[in-house]
Amino acid sequence: MVENLEGISFKGCEVLPSFFQNGSKEFHKLRLLDLTKASPNTVENFIQGQDLNNLRWLCLQECMIEKLPNSLFNCCHLQVLDLTKCHHLQFVFDILSHGLNRSISIDMKKSSTSIDNLNALLELNLSGCLSLKELPPSIGQLKALQELNMLKCSSLRELPTSIGQLSALQSLYLNNCWRLRELPTSIGQLSALQNLDLGYCLSLQELPTSIGRLNALQKLNMSKCSNLRELPTSIGQLNALQELNMSKCSSLRELPTSIGQLNALQNLDLSICLNLQELFTSIGQLSALQNLHLEHCCSLQQLPTSIGQLSALQNLDLQYCSSLQE
């Protein structure tokens, strides 16, 4: 029976089937609606014509829509709205002032300042928003946000200072944001942050000293940050850090001795750090270190004697360290 239907897919639908064109108002139990690659008319006609008060998940991936239907306001229980690769969608938060209490995936040109109304949002996925240059300062109002994904936001140049107000944020993905030049000092306020991914941030030259205040941080990925020349001494304060990936940081010449204070560190990847000339002498203090990757460190000439103190070490990779003498 139509009134008991909980899920519908119109994936790739150009024209709405005649059965659904009359605004039947009978889909009171509809929870899942997939309109991936559907035409703008299909999206508009179905959402405008039905009672979708119980809708929890709406997928509009790769739709050619320029704006969201006004009747989306009526979806007061909507938990997930997926707008990935909606390349013509320029504004989204202006009309989403309430009702979204789970996650959003967005591909758009400009984010609106009304984002602060989404105060129950747990996950914000902006991955692949190639034209997105900035986030609104009001993003700091998303107090419940646990994951912010900006993977491949290649036009992003900076983050607002207000990002430090995201007190519940656990994961921040900035991989392939290759125009990002720096992180705001306020990032040190992210007391719940466990995973920070800065891989392939090719323009990033340094980290703020405040990064040492990320007491919950467990994973830090800075692979292929080719312009990063050094790390702040404060990195040694990351007491919870378990994984540090700095592979392919080709401008890196040395590491601060304070890294020896990372008592929880299990995995250290320095592979293909072509200009790394020596290891920090305090490396022997890394009592939890299990994996040390130094392959293709072609400028590395010797290992410190303290490396013999790594009692937990299981894997040591020195392949293609062509300058290694002892």
Overview of the structural elements:
The chain contains 1 helix and 14 strands. A 14-stranded parallel sheet has the order 1-2-3-4-5-6-7-8-9-10-11-12-13-14, with no helix packed on it. It is mostly beta strands and 326 residues long. The longest helix has 10 residues, at 40-49.
**% residues in beta strands:** 5-15%
Rg over C-alpha atoms, rounded to the nearest angstrom: 24 Å
Mean pLDDT: 84
Number of strands: 14
User: Can you count the helices?
Assistant: 1
The major β-sheet equals:
14 strands, parallel
**Strand line-up in the sheet with most strands:** 1-2-3-4-5-6-7-8-9-10-11-12-13-14
Q: What is the H/E string?
A: EEHEEEEEEEEEEEE
Runs in which pLDDT lies below 50 for 5 or more consecutive residues are 91-102, 110-114
- Helix-strand makeup class: mainly beta
Helix content: under 10%
What is the 3D form? Answer: elongated
Distance between the termini: 77 Å
Give the quaternary arrangement of the chains: single chain
Which helices and strands occur, and which strands form pairs?
Elements (H helix, E strand, L loop, with lengths): L6 E3 L22 E3 L5 H10 L7 E3 L20 E4 L19 E4 L16 E3 L21 E3 L21 E3 L21 E3 L21 E3 L21 E3 L21 E3 L21 E3 L21 E3 L9
Parallel strand pairs: 1-2, 2-3, 3-4, 4-5, 5-6, 6-7, 7-8, 8-9, 9-10, 10-11, 11-12, 12-13, 13-14
